[in-house]
Amino acid sequence: MSSKDLGKACFVSTATVYRLCDKLNLAGFSDLKIKITSSLNDYLKSNGDFNFDFPVNPYQTHYEIVHKIKEDYEQTLNLTANLFSLDQLRLIASAMKKAKVIDIYTSAGNINFALNFQFQMKEIGIDVNVPIDEYHQRLTAASSNQEHLAIVITFGGRGILSDILPRILTKTKTPSF
Predict the structure, then answer these.
(1) Whole-number Å distance between alpha carbons of 74 and 81
(2) Environment class of residue 88 by beta-carbon count within 10 Å: exposed (0-12), middle (13-18) or buried (19+)?
(3) What is the CATH number of domain 86-171?
(4) What digits encode the pLDDT tens for the residues 71-101?
(5) Structural domain boundaries of the chain?
(6) pLDDT (tens digit, 9 = 90+) per residue, 38-66?
(7) Per the count of CB atoms within 10 A, which of 62, 113, 122, 129 is most buried?
(8) Which residue stretches of 11-61 are H helix?
């Protein structure tokens, strides 16, 4: 398939295909094809008939249950690996080392993970704030500065503060991810 063919199939121009390659930091269209081909197997595995909400049923044997749970974890790891960027990880780790204070903004299901991260970082002497309610999140964001690092965790950009917090953090010039 050529870049022109891909553009037609996706209803975009050939120039848009090359702009995508640039945004992905790829040398050209052939690199894009290699990247797609190399991740295709994981993509196909991750889009199988697996039901994440109900991976087991009451009539399965212990062996089948363990196998399904293993399959669930493999799916999760494959999906994470496909979205994971080592360059982003390097940038975040560098920013975390520079920051005097790390502020984590999240809600609902991610709060316990953030609190666990806070605990683990405290054990090595690094301050992490995890404001939980909306008032404290706004207050923490408004009082942060360039010595802080803000990590905002949302569910696909949804949430009460997903629009408000970035504006506050930009105003206070707080580095954020």
Answers:
(1) 10
(2) exposed
(3) 3.40.50
(4) 888 887 887 787 778 888 899 999 999 999 9
(5) 1-38, 48-84, 86-171
(6) 777 766 665 556 565 566 778 889 898 89
(7) 129
(8) 14-23, 29-46
